[in-house]
Amino acid sequence: MEIMVTKVKNAVLLLLIMGIGFCPPLMEGKEIAEVNVQQLRKLASKYNVTSLLVFGDSSVDPGNNNVLSTNVKSNFPPYGKDFFNARPTGRFCDGRLATDFIAEAMGFGETVPAFLDRTLKPIDLLHGVSFASASSGYDDLTANLSKVLSLPKQLEYFMHYKIQLSRLVRHDKAENIIRNAIVVLSMGTNDFLENYFLEPQRPKQFSLDQYQNFLVSSMSHNVEVMHRLGIRRLVVVGVPPLGCMPVVRTITNQITACSTTFNRAAYAFNAKIKLKLAAMEANLGLLTSFVDAYAIVQDAVDNPTAYGLRETAKGCCGTGLVEFGETCKGSTTCSDPQSYVFWDAVHPSQNMYKILAAKAIQSVAQDILS
């Protein structure tokens, strides 16, 4: 952890030197969106939504990393404190993830299972799975640094999923399930926090602006692969405000406010993702939706009482300032995680994921199911 802190401090200096010429606007406070489950399920039925398929990083990994030879895991307490039976599953959260709440709202069960879960049954494949791997990113180097599943590797497992699904329900029905699935892609955070701002290789090759373009190009290439494999409905989740994460605020000595420098990097990247997504929608014939995780989390941090939250500057695990993953293992926790924006020093709480899920469902209903 000390090495990481030192590297990120050096990265802060690098960012300050490079600079980015604008500040992201702040959102005004809004009430939490109420999800009309009955209406959503009617829409899902009307548009023949068959399942929820998930690719990404720790924001949507329900436990695939549990079976990998990596140190990036969370299948131990206090993770899972608010999950069913207080069971740690490999989710980097006290409970469920946003994708779990989305699946439940659509009537696909209370959770999205991990594809690599050894207890997964063939019947579980019907309503969707997650191929996500904590610490992954759009840059393959990001995943390789932590020995986790890169996005191309996740797509390789998706092809295995297609084969298994075809054996279960016949090829034509399997293709129909995939064509009408809602597919969620959520990553990008680790490309900055665990790669560009920590490791020397990419900053030697790219300016920050060039690296963002490199990530967007990688995202675009992988989405084209998804399209060739039959995916037609894609939800892309933007990068959250990196400078509001407790660990970033701690190491940049910004305890009373989010780090503007890190937030600018995230905001600029999201803007490029949105532009590329619009172009791919036109060129490939995809139905797409962008979930602005930046705006949602930033608004919760700025206006916590509007969301029933209280603590915005630190996580619930340990001191709440630096612990996540292995350093959170066995730590004491706050008594009321539901009032915290962050569960650990990096990842949102279950309650924050509920808020993200509600906003995501609004986006999907408006952009894809209309």
Automatic annotation (TrEMBL):
UniProt xrefs under InterPro entries: GDSL, GDSL_lipolytic_enzyme, SGNH_hydro_sf, SGNH_plant_lipase-like
| Sorted UniProt keywords | Signal
Domain of life, source organism: Eukaryota
Please report which protein family the annotation says this sequence is part of: Belongs to the 'GDSL' lipolytic enzyme family.
Example of a GO MF term = hydrolase activity, acting on ester bonds
Q: Where is the signal peptide?
A: 1-29
User: From what organism does this protein derive?
Assistant: Cucurbita maxima
Q: Where do transmembrane segments lie in this chain?
A: none
Report what the protein is called: GDSL esterase/lipase At5g45950
